[in-house]
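Reopening this one. Same input as before:
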Amino acid sequence: MSEMSNYLENALINVTLRATAYTAPTTVYVALFTTDPTDAGTGTEVTGGSYARTSVTFGAPSNGVSTNSADVTFPTCTAGWGIVTHLGLYDASTGGNLLYHTPLDASKTVDTGDVFKIITSNLSVTLA
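Same output, byte for byte:
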């Protein structure tokens, strides 16, 4: 995942080039999308069926790459979430600001009873 949102791009420019303060989120959350969230954060996030953004932790970066340090397990789907095509990282469990986004390697239909899970080290953020 290397696609930054407009929000994060502006924040990084401001903090590195303009000495403007940026407060890093204390918790980062993974969001699931049925359409591309785009840099503007305008995609369609999954709703209903017990869906909720799920917190994620990342290990220390190496050569500009950081990966999730534990499994990310979403709540059991109680009503179909549709075809999940993209992931996003947010600075809040609801609302908030999109930080990064990426398409899934393969779209995934999430039906009632399914559990969407991202295995440790399978979610990476790259800055290059």
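So the earlier flakiness isn't reproducible anymore. For the record, The CA atoms of residues 27 and 125 lie 15 Å apart.
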